[in-house]
């Protein structure tokens, strides 16, 4: 089949690579316009655009997917099907109507669970033991189209959203190719999503990423892992922001008695009190400084018994 692939960030790259290497023709790629990134805030093409350009594939970067010039060019290319992975923009019905076999989205959850922008983050945040990926036909309603295929992935106790998404992006690329193969061969029929079990995964904001040490250790752990690498878990120390990497809840036999937010530091570790067991800090990043091991940070700031994270 002739394909036009839509995607933007690094997690979409394995799928594009797999489709390029498949028996299908990737005639063009649709991605978000160049954006500023990195410390120098230079204008940069998306990871998907860079891969496509390196393969000599036409790259389309519409400001909006409803732009007349983009729709005209898409119709000229005449794709049979448009696979989508994390494109990052809504597709109007005029775009959805162009490919005869539709737009097929790879979504990183077991639909109808966690429809929306941040399914992996919410799976970790809510303590799911198993998540996965789904391929489905895009319809007007958010992530509600009929499903072609799924795969499952265990959520490991120490998974960050970045680590889990990396695994899903690789496994999901294989699922997407198998789905496109099945559609091309007429072997796949999409199954409507069941009404039960629908949940929504809104994008996590910096406000969502603030750690509350008056919560149980399990909650602090989940928020920190769900928000790593983005938007980045954080708290405050002596009135300034402190970015916090993943933490580790400590067992009862290995913990000092600490108030919520109270910091205990020695030569080998830094632990912080919660409403239940303390948690072990791994890496932290003070405002305006580089990331560092928590023991190195504590050696510099020398927290007292009166200091608390979160104020």
Mean pLDDT over all positions = 95
Would you list the SSEs in sequence order as H and E? EHEEEHEHEHEHEEHHEEEEEEEEH
Count of β-strands: 17
Radius of gyration: 22 Å
* Major sheet size, sense and barrel closure: 7 strands, mixed
Question: What percent of residues are in strands?
Answer: 15-25%
Query: Strands of the biggest beta sheet: in what spatial order?
Result: 5-2-1-6-7-8-9
Derived from helix and strand composition plus strand pairing, the structural class reads alpha+beta
Which second-level CATH architecture of the largest domain applies? 3-Layer(aba) Sandwich
Q: Characterize the quaternary organization of these chains.
A: single chain
Q: What's the CATH topology label of the largest domain?
A: Rossmann fold
Helix percent band: 25-40%
CATH top level of the largest domain?
Alpha Beta
How many structurally independent domains? 2
The shape, in one word, is elongated
Brief synopsis:
The protein has helices spanning 13-20, 47-54, 68-77, 93-96, 119-125, 161-184, 217-226, 294-301, and strands spanning 2-7, 25-30, 35-37, 42-44, 58-60, 82-85, 103-107, 130-137, 147-154, 234-237, 240-244, 247-249, 263-265, 270-272, 279-281, 283-286, 292-293. It is of the alpha+beta class and 311 residues long.
